[in-house]
Write a structure and sequence with these properties.
- By secondary structure, the chain is α+β, with helices and mostly antiparallel strands.
- It folds into 2 domains: about 45-250, Helix Hairpins, CATH 1.10.287; about 285-435, endopeptidase domain like (from Nostoc punctiforme) (endopeptidase fold (from Nostoc punctiforme)), CATH 3.90.1720.10.
- Helices cover about 65% and strands about 10% of the residues.
- The chain contains 8 helices and 8 strands.
- It has helices spanning about 1-25, 40-135, 150-245, 250-285, 300-310, 335-340, 350-360, 370-375; strands at about 325-330, 345, 375-380, 390-395, 395-405, 410, 420-425, 435.
- Strands 4-5-6-7 form a 4-stranded antiparallel beta sheet. Strands 1-2 form a two-stranded antiparallel sheet.
- Helix 2 packs antiparallel against helix 3 and helix 5 crosses helix 7 (about 350-360).
- It starts with a helix and ends with a strand.
């Protein structure tokens, strides 16, 4: 069965390649332009030279605009992570403040109870002494001696009174010591209460900071989205002027057309290659046994790559992707929302890694920074297929991808795009180490 499936895949790839070759070979030859006079050729050459200089300037401007757009995307990713980190700090501060308040309330209750016990004992002793001296020996148990018949009987009554007084005084002394201990406990209670209040203030400050950071991230993301739209509009305008410059000369029009035909043929061939690669990878991933435990080695690395490549073309969705496959994205309050990611089913960069490594029994964390820290840190120069590449700014990871060999990687890049194979990008803050999990 596996042999038959492999043979079918080979036939499919061969058929796609043959179709691509046939399509490329069917392109018609350009029609020769009319034969111009010498004067027409001179004027045309002068015009072409002038336009060529303008084309070169516009081409440089397009490169600058694309670099600016990429930088804006990086800044948006950084601000998202800043807001997430501030929210984590706020949640931890609230939890710790509540725990400190509970400890303070418990200590205060115990201190109050001990104080009441000591006060009650002192009141009883005071009542006993007052009653003894104001009413003689007739008070309470001393009344048993009110019928004393002689001096010895009176001495006995006095000794009994002293013994009872000493007994109560001893009990009170013990309670007084307990009261001192509880006073110390009360001091600890006040300190715990102060700690609780301080932690609550810290939690409130953290919340303000989190709200400010989140609002700032959303505002910045909104402004950057507008700038990206402006850049895209300028790119369209530059491209239109570039087209106009090229179309001014019949030879440039032909050159442009040939280039566009080649570009379409290349795009079709690449789409066919990625389609064949996706189907072949999906077949291998489906044929691989489900992981009963975590696996390592070259075969496991290929399984991880196959699972990722089986998702080529799946749309990007911020917050999307689980160990089982693509899932619906979530709101981010900014750029991802403007693309409608929360309505799409797909992957973001870390979600794709989560799905790929689940195929070999590895349960990666969700955040891209934690995914990078999860595996063994290996120098970039020694990376091998199955390693994860990460990009960071200001100490925070904002993107992650899977290295598949031959200078290529597979990634879920950004909103509006889809899972694709790209050359490894050494710019934008690529970290000097890769994460090796298998």
């Amino acid at each position: 069965m596996r042999f038959a499936r492999g043979l079918l895949l080979v036939l499919l790839v061969t058929l796609l390649a043959a179709t691509s070759v046939a399509t490329a070979g069917a392109a018609p030859d350009p029609t020769p332009p009319p034969n111009p006079s010498n004067e027409d050729l001179r004027r045309s050459r002068d015009a072409v030279d002038d336009r060529a200089a303008e084309v070169a300037r516009l081409t440089r401007r397009l490169g600058e605009l694309r670099a600016e757009a990429e930088e804006l995307q990086i800044q948006v990713a950084e601000q998202h992570e800043s807001a997430n980190q501030a929210l984590d700090v706020l949640t931890a501060a609230r939890t710790e403040a509540d725990a400190a308040a509970d400890r303070a309330r418990t200590a205060r209750a115990r201190t109050d109870a001990a104080g009441k016990a000591v006060d009650a004992a002192r009141t009883r002793l005071d009542d006993f002494v007052a009653g003894t001296y104001s009413q003689g020996l007739d008070l309470g148990p001393i009344g048993l001696l009110t019928t004393a018949t002689g001096p010895q009987d009176l001495v006995d009554r006095a000794q009994l009174t002293d013994a009872l007084a000493q007994q109560q005084a001893s009990a009170l002394d013990g309670l007084e010591r307990a009261r001192v201990q509880q006073a110390n406990a009360d001091s600890l209670a006040r300190k715990a209460q102060d700690e609780a209040e301080e932690r609550r203030r810290a939690a409130a400050d953290a919340k303000v900071a989190a709200d400010r950071a989140l609002a700032g991230a959303q505002q910045a993301a909104s402004e950057q989205a507008q700038r990206l739209q402006a850049v895209a509009a300028e790119q369209a305008d530059v491209q239109a002027r570039l087209d106009a410059a090229e179309n001014a000369d019949a030879g440039l029009r032909a050159q442009r057309q040939r280039f566009q035909d080649w570009q379409r043929a290349q795009a079709a061939a690449e789409a066919a290659r990625q389609r064949a690669a996706r189907e072949e990878a999906a077949a291998r991933a489906a044929a691989a046994a489900p992981p009963s435990a975590r696996r390592t080695g070259t075969a496991s690395a290929q399984t991880v790559i196959d699972r990722a490549m089986s998702q080529l073309g799946v749309t990007y969705a911020w917050g999307g992707g689980t160990a089982r496959g693509p899932s619906r994205g979530i709101r981010d309050g900014g750029v991802a929302d403007s693309y409608g990611d929360y309505r799409k089913v797909g992957f973001d960069c870390s979600g794709l890694m989560l799905y790929a490594f689940a195929g070999v029994g590895v349960n990666l964390p969700r955040y891209s920074g934690n995914q990078h820290a999860y595996g063994q840190q290996v120098p970039l120069a020694r990376m091998r297929p199955g390693d994860m590449l990460s990009w960071a700014r200001n100490g925070r990871v904002y993107h992650i991808a899977l290295y598949i060999g031959n200078g290529r990687m597979i990634e879920a890049p950004y909103s509006g795009a889809s899972v694709k194979i790209s050359p490894v990008r050494y710019s934008g803050g690529l970290l000097p180490t890769v994460s090796r999990v298998i």
